[in-house]
Every structure is written in C-alpha cells, then in structure tokens.
Design goal:
The complex is a heterodimer of chains A (117) and B (108).
Chain A: E1 3-6, E2 10-12, E3 18-25, E4 34-39, E5 45-51, E6 59-60, E7 69-73, E8 78-83, E9 92-100, E10 103-107, E11 111-115
Chain B: E1 5-6, E2 9-12, E3 18-23, E4 33-37, E5 44-47, E6 61-66, E7 69-74, E8 83-90, E9 97-99, E10 103-107
Parallel strand pairs in B: 2-10
Antiparallel strand pairs in B: 1-3, 3-7, 4-5, 4-8, 6-7, 8-9, 8-10
Classes of the chains: A mainly beta (117), B mainly beta (108).
C-alpha cells in the first residue's frame, strides 16, 4: 500500500524549534516530489513548498520562503518540515503530499501543531 | 492571497447535480486537480489532469475546463459527498502550486 505516515501531534512554545517528519512507503520514494500543505484551524489549504528526493534544493511558496525549511533523507524515505523559531501563528495542521502528474495523489494523515505560551 | 477563486458554499438536493467552479488565470495554461476534504480528515484527490479519476473515486465525479475556469461536477450527489472541495493548479509563474479558496458542499 502506498502511504505517507507523519509524526505525531506537537505542543510547543513560541521561539522553540521543531522538525516534523513524513515517511513514504509502498512506492519508489526517489521518483516522486514530496510537498507540504498547511491548514490553519477552520481555514483552507495552503501550499508551502516541495522537494525532489534526488535534489537537495526545495522550492517554496513566497508566503513561506524563509520561515520554514523542507528537507529529505531518501535513504530512510523520509521528508521533513522544520522551524527554527515557532510563532503562535504557526498553529495549524500540516500535511505532506506526494506529487503525481501535477496533482497530489497521496496525503499523509496530518500533524497537528499547537504553539502557545 | 490565493490565485484560484471558488464560491464559498453551494447546496444540492440528494440525487441532483452540482457544479463547483474554480477561476484563475493559470488555468488557461495548467491542468487543475480537485480534492475532497471531510471534517477531521486529510483531503482526497478526486480529479486530476484532463478529467482523470484516481482508483476508487466514483464516476459521478467529473472535471472540465474552459478558459480561466475549471469545474467539478457531481452527477447524482450522495449524502457522503457533503464536504469541502478545493481546486489546485500551478500559479501564474508555473513555479509553484496554489490551492483554491474552497467550496463547502451541502447535500440537502
């Protein structure tokens, strides 16, 4: 079964750092782009950025450039999304996605992040 | 701000047909995809490319596009189709993806 399995929910304080993960299985991980999508509480979907496992350089939405870092370790078929200094406004659910034919055909279950002091 | 615009909400009687639209300049160049999201769940891809349905998606879901407008049609809506629907495509630069503003579909 093709799937993306994300790390669990997180509760953090403003200013803290965080790295969440997304492990792919059931397919050739190296052959597909992996992206990240944000959904703030009660709001719509926002595309954050994407990375190709064979290329260390990610592409970011202008809205997220400089605020997050996307990386990948293809040896363990895992993609990451990280923050160096969290803000309360980062509170959201984050989904990883597999890109296929310009669409996102496989979604992780989501990682809920709460940031408050 | 999103470059793909959708109506916030539509309603449809059980068994009837509903069309959800998505407008944006990038749709003149790039294919759109459509996602269904039910409360508390991850979105699910329902249409991609030129009206392609992933395995397991009922054939009552179909997609079309003309000019700067893409449409998702549900023919014979079922109670389980009540959900939020999002379109997505590349942005005008082609370098990034973007999601539409989302449409809440209510089945009456």
């Amino acid at each position: 079964e093709v799937q993306l399995v994300q790390s669990g929910a997180e509760v953090k304080k403003p200013g803290e750092s965080l790295k969440i993960s997304c492990k792919g299985s059931g397919y050739n991980f190296s052959n597909y782009y992996i992206g990240w999508v944000r959904q703030m509480p009660g709001r719509g979907l926002e595309w954050m950025g994407i990375i190709y496992p064979g290329d260390p350089d990610a592409r970011y939405s202008p809205s997220f450039q400089g605020h997050v870092t996307i990386s990948v370790d293809k040896s363990i078929t895992t993609a990451y999304l990280q923050w160096s200094s969290l803000k309360a406004s980062d509170t959201a659910t984050y989904f990883c996605v597999r890109e296929y034919s310009q669409a996102f055909d496989v979604w992780g279950q989501g990682t809920m992040l709460s940031v408050f002091s | 701000s999103s470059e793909l615009t959708q109506d916030p909400a539509v309603s449809v009687a059980l068994g009837q047909t509903v069309r959800i639209t998505c407008q944006g300049d990038s749709l003149r160049i790039f294919y759109e995809s459509w996602y269904q999201q039910k409360p508390g769940q991850a979105p699910v891809l329902v249409i991609y490319g030129k009206n392609n349905r992933p395995s397991g998606i009922p054939d009552r879901f179909s997609g079309s596009s003309s000019g700067n407008t893409a449409s998702l049609t549900i023919t014979g809506a079922q109670a389980e189709d009540e959900a939020d629907y999002y379109c997505s495509s590349r942005d005008s630069s082609g370098s990034h993806h973007v999601f539409g503003t989302g449409t809440k579909v209510t089945v009456l």
